[in-house]
Amino acid sequence: MKKKILIGVILAIIIIALIGVIFLRTKGKEDDENTLILGMDDSFPPMGFRNENNELVGFDIDLATEVCKKLGMQLEVQPISWAAKEQELDSGNIDCIWNGFGYTEERNEAMTLSDMYIKDESVFFVKNDATYTSQEDLKGKKIGIQNGSTQERNLNDSEFGKEVGQIIGYSDYLTALMDLETGNIDAVYMSKITGSYIMKSQNKDFRIIEAQGLSEGETGMVIAFKKGNTELKDKVENAITELKAEGKVKEIAEKWFGEDLTE
Fold it and tell me: Domain span at residue 161?
């Protein structure tokens, strides 16, 4: 009798344990599906960066937060190496690249991209007291870019890029602009939105030289998803459309840019 009771207890424990494992796996899967993991460069103001309290903030963070509220999802912001962003997306470590990500035809072939949601352009930032007044004056000079950026590709692929003295890659634009300030390089080729924000918020003595013939067609920022993941792309785009209609996107843009730069 005691033996039968012991066997019964053991079986009950095994059954409870199996139910627990099934529950945890199901819950874990549901949590994964209900979480949007956003991959970002955490030094790309004002799109996404760390503030003085080491908090991840920025236009894209605020917009993604509102999108996730619409979708009933949890937002998880994951800083990544910008040079390895495509690998992070392909491996499933992140669900999207959402951090001032510029549109290119090459990226459109490799990933599923959203429509452009921010208008931007690439320009040269130089010190205010520099003698350069045009792109032509930058031939033979040292120009900084961010590794893995659209600016790196555009500059390297252009005829003008063959005539500069040296193209110097940086892990982020904050470091590149520090080198510009100290005179280690002559210009930084970068996002006008980001450079202007840094210049104003940090009171940097820079000015802009317009770029000529380095990019084709309309330029702007998009959200990248793994190739073929149109379901998530459509959900995010629909949420952004609703937020635009409600005036929320304009509100966030004016907070970070001082004007509405959204498409």
Answer: 122-210
3-state secondary structure of 166: strand
Q: What number of CA atoms fall less than 13 Å from residue 33's CA on the CB side?
A: 7
Q: How far is CA 152 from CA 126, 149, 211, 253, in A?
A: 17, 5, 13, 26
**Helical axes 230-245 vs 59-71, angle rounded to 10°:** 100
Q: Which residues contact 157 (CB under 8 A, 6 or more apart)?
A: none
Is 68 inside a domain boundary?
yes
What Cα–Cα distance (Å) separates residue 1 from each residue in 8, 13, 59, 98, 150?
Answer: 11, 19, 70, 65, 76
Report the distance separating Cα 41 and Cα 175, nearest Å. Answer: 13
- 63 plus 139 within the same structural domain: no
Contacts of 123 (CB under 8 A, 6+ apart): 189, 190, 192, 195, 208, 209, 210, 211
Model confidence over 109-167: pLDDT tens digits?
999 999 999 989 999 999 999 999 999 999 999 999 999 898 999 999 999 999 999 99
- CA–CA separation, 25 vs 218, rounded Å? 45
pTM of the model: 0.78
- What is the three-class DSSP state of 160? helix
User: Mean pLDDT throughout 64-87?
Assistant: 96
Per DSSP, what are the bridge partners of residue 77? 38
170 membership: H or E segment, kind and range: strand 166-170
Q: Spell out a b/e string for 136-153, using b for 16 or more CB atoms within 10 Å of the CB, else e.
A: ebbeebbbbbbebbbbbb
Let me know whether 89 and 45 are in one domain. Answer: yes
Residue 257: Cβ within 10 Å count:
16
